[in-house]
Amino acid sequence: MGTTTEPMAEPAAPAPAKQPPGPPSTANQRRAQRGSAAGLFGNLALVLYFAFSLLPVLFIVLLSLKSNAQQTTTYLWFTPTLENYQTVLGLGDGGSSYVRFFLASLATSTGAVLVSLLIGIPAAYAAARYRFRGSEDLMFTLLSFRFAPELVVIIPLGVIYQQIGLYDTIFGMIWVLQLVTMPLVVWILRSFFQDLPAELEEAALLDGYTRRQAFLKIVLPLVRPGIAAVCLLAFIFAWNNFIFPFTLTSGDAQTVTVSSLAFLGGNQVRFNLVAAGAVMAVLPPLVLALCIQRYLVRGLSFGAVKG
Amino acid sequence: MSSATAQAPPLANAPRVSRRRKALRPYLLSVPAVLLCAGILYPFFLGVSYTFFDFSATNPQPNVVGFANFKEILASSEFWASARVTLLFALAATGLETVLGVGVALLLNRSTLIGKLFEKVLIVPLMVAPILAAIMWKLLLLPEIGWVRPIVEFFGVHGYNGTDSPVMAMVWAIVVDAWIFTPFVAIIALAGLRSLPKSPFEAAAVDGGGWWLTFRKLTLPMLWPYVLVAVIFRLMDNLKMFDVIFGLTSGGPGTATTTLQISAYLEAISYARYSSGLTYMFLLWALVFVISMILVKYLRRLQNRAAGV
Predict the structure, then answer these.
(1) Which of A54, B184, B225, B256 is the most buried (most CB within 10 A)?
(2) Domains of chain A by range and CATH?
(3) Are B276 and B73 in contact (CB under 8 A)?
(4) What value of ipTM does the predicted structure carry?
(5) A30-84 per-position pLDDT tens digit
(6) How many residue pairs bridge chain A and chain B with CB atoms within 8 Å of each other?
């Protein structure tokens, strides 16, 4: 529709511009000017968005470097100090619970990813390569875990955990974190397996490989980058999870995301300690995410969008 | 590499793998995952069954009460207030993230120098644990130490009080959610933009289609399936968002930001009324389930149509 009216208007507009030879104010030039103005506006919008996006990070890093005397000011000029990090890590006075929380985060996240891989790789492969009854049901059950409100499982699970002694244990956390890591692993890996042509395995079978050998020696090495990306992404999500450790642990298996709340409590809040704790808890996922930027789109969309 | 051996007769044991074992193989591979699902579904169904009891910390030997929990909660004004807060938060946050995310993606897709620079740090907020993001913003918004008060005062607004007023608490909760998750929409939209075919846009440029016309008639319809994937993820997540609201306002002031997840948390964990909390959760779960089914069906139709053309 638009195209029919545009050409009608077009000849009328440039015609007078062409007649006078003096000022070369052609339509193209005007369009270019308009383009650069739009470009400038676009860049301005980008700068604004990224100021919004990075300001809180800058704020928290600066706050974590402020001394006690300055923590309740908004000043930008101050003498940076690392003593908050030392306090949080308990370097001054032998040991702190933060290190223990950090290690618990590491143990539960790593454990959750390993369990998900062991269980998820075969299931993802089966779902990618075979048409069998219940396959889609299984996939959608797993997906529904991703979208279910966590508390619907947490409340009964808390009761069960109390009864069988899994409350506040690393193993209990690994189990419940499957809700986070398992759908991710299976859905993304299925999309990676589907990307490989089935002829690959058929050729290997013709070469005398067994199905298992074909999988281990041909398929698995080819999806290794995908598996690595999924591992890191699942680790990040397990690490960043809050509601499960918050409700199902109380001390031994408590993670850094929960411990960050602890600094907010008490009689006098030490904002600089909160900030230092947050910065350290944010670093591992951030560093890992930078390693897998290429696969983030596919990972975050559960394989629905291939970036 | 297989051409030579492919001619050779198949190995004797290859066809010996009986047909039944072959048919069983996918099931065997899926058994661990099915067991895991069962291990998660058991507590889920146990939880659903609790909604028909009067189970709480003070009443560890619960009795069957039928639909009494549902009746009581559906008749309470707290539930409907909470449901309204949930929907308001989810729709506003998802809308804001979608508009901002698509906008950022369009701007980054121009591949300007500044855009390339920013693209590297785009995902930073997304990788911050939501609870930590909420705490960071909580400090940022504090009138005494945060940067928001001086910024707001610079623009001549006085009487800044952080998240103290009900309206502003909700607004900031939405802003914080958008801060974290706009990059999620942006990277998916950006991947979509980069996968679009070039020729329709070249044709549009030759025809002299303006930017807005091209965007409305060409870019947006072709990009929509990608955006919809992001919208589904965001809407589902925002309906059950806990970390951001709990970290920022804990549902306050009053009940201004008490979503269904927060209500259920208060009922089940703070007051230890398990059955009541679970009834809240079950109703939220049903809401999320219905909405996701509708959206996924719509997405499927959209994708089928795209594949059919």
Answers:
(1) B184
(2) 96-300 (1.10.3720.10)
(3) yes
(4) 0.86
(5) 555 556 777 788 889 999 999 999 999 999 999 999 887 777 777 777 888 888 8
(6) 281
